[in-house]
Specification:
Length: 144
């Protein structure tokens, strides 16, 4: 009986197989919901769309999206469809970068609302009215 030998892929063959391939069968679809900040006129969705087009990297170059990655806008939501691998995490990173650039990162956060969706929300800041005490220790009770 002869044993069949498995062919091992060399390092070059592995690297060649993982870089630069465009998948024709699977599409990666993501969306970023900017409804809350854009309705309050804090965020400009068209400028955010242009920022993503200029900064998404494909094959190591920013702005090189070509026909592989498509970004479309529907009201206050951005839809990103990629024929090649696109990490959802990179979209969160770019969104945070845009918020920092617009100086609204301190008020708006990026939250994963679904497997393929992000949503921009405000931080929950609770304020207490001025006439109410903060803690029970601050209240002095006169007991006689």
């Amino acid at each position: 009986k002869k044993k069949k030998k498995k062919k091992k892929k060399t390092k070059f063959a592995k690297k060649q197989a993982t870089t630069g391939k465009i998948s024709t069968t699977s599409l990666h679809e993501f969306s970023i919901d900017c409804t809350l900040p854009s309705e309050d006129q804090i965020l400009d969705v068209p400028s955010f769309e242009q920022f993503l087009k200029d900064n998404i990297k494909f094959k190591g170059k920013a702005g090189n999206i070509g026909g592989v990655i498509k970004i479309s806008r529907q009201d206050h939501t951005l839809k990103i469809v990629a024929k090649a691998h696109l990490a959802k995490r990179s979209l969160k990173y770019l969104t945070k970068r845009y918020l920092r650039k617009q100086q609204i990162r301190d008020w708006v956060r990026v939250v994963a609302s679904d497997k393929n969706n992000y949503q921009l929300r405000y931080y929950n800041i609770k304020t207490e009215p001025a006439n109410q005490p903060k803690a029970l220790e601050d209240v002095k009770m006169d007991v006689k």
